[in-house]
Amino acid sequence: MNGRVVIVGGSIVGLSSALALARSGAEVTVLERSDLRALDVGGGLGVDVELIQQVTGATTAPPVCRGIDRDTTAWQLLRDWLEECAAEIDAIDLRRDVNVTLIASEQDGAVVTSSAGEEWRADIVVGADGVHSTVRAFVDADRPLATYAGVVLWRAMVSEELVKDAAKLPGPREPSREYYQDRYRLVTYPVPGPQGQTRVGERRLNLVWYDTAREDLLRARGLLDGVEVRGSLLADALPAELGAELRKIAEQTWPSPWAEALDIAIERHFIFGTPVAEYMPTKLVNGRVAIAGDAAHAASPMVGGGFSEGLDDAARLAKSFTSASDGDRMLESYEKARLGPARRHVAASQRATNQYLKWAHSP
User: Fold this and answer.
1) Number of H helices, E strands in the chain
2) Are 356 and 302 in contact (CB under 8 A)?
3) Of 18, 25, 196, 285, which has the fewest CB atoms closer than 10 Å, so is most exposed?
4) DSSP per residue over 47-101, as a string?
5) pLDDT of 214-233, one tens digit each?
6) 240-244-247-253 Cα dihedral, nearest 10 degrees
7) Which pLDDT does position 327 carry in this prediction?
8) How many of the other CB atoms lie within 10 Å of CB of 108?
9) What pTM, to 2 d.p., does this model score?
């Protein structure tokens, strides 16, 4: 089919979907809530560079640290690279500072409305607006929320420059590592520096600390309402007494250089807390509107592969766009292909989370 697609959400799955769909002949408008390019925030993630290039059609690659087990990068580096790729495609129009508040499906298309009263009409609307998705509520009004999984992730990226005098740095092919102690789990790996540097001493140490003991804090800060996750605890909002507690735990629990990196992260307010939320889909489509990525199948990073699942969504959207004669058949094909894998991914996340919680709370 030939047509226009509006993507709500300009993060890594939204931009990947835009690139894949534009490659397939769509005219794509991406509506992003933020009014700025990605700041030097967020965490690290493992990536499959070959899959990214295959789905997006990119001839370059995002900056990555190549470990023995996988390639890793930082979220904002990947997002900036995807935005640069999208800027080279005339068929992609990225609009910033757009807060989508209403989606309406029509017989031959859909309408997206912003809080400022702007409207965009399209043959297809794709919600790639993350775990706190607005579009999900339209697709499945009875089940609009991702729910708290019982775990907070303390995340930080610390420049190796800050650590090198206090500890030995990981080698150039450092694998991802996991450490377990008491009720805690720590996942570590290097990621490129803020300008994409990958030499030892110029990278950043990425840390993800799993903590099951912070529900009262989340509720007190308004970040957890019932089972709904409302947001993350920003680095500058970390209570001083909690910071001191985490520093003591890190010093007594985690090996070098990760303990030293965490000490720096807490002292300098680099660390932030993200409550893990999970969403098990029963549908991905309503009329001419679909959801993809974390909006469709939010899962714990404990099972990995979340971005790869989002890339599979993007690839299937593009394939369905190419093969379908109209938008209804396109989205029917997309849901048929992706609902089963999405549910299996979230089920694996739920099993892993439950096993971890059982272990963490055992005597």
Assistant:
1) 11, 19
2) yes
3) 25
4) E-HHHHHHHH--SS----EE-SS-EEEEHHHHHHHHHHHHHT-TTEEEE-S--EE
5) 999 999 999 999 999 999 99
6) -130
7) 81
8) 12
9) 0.95
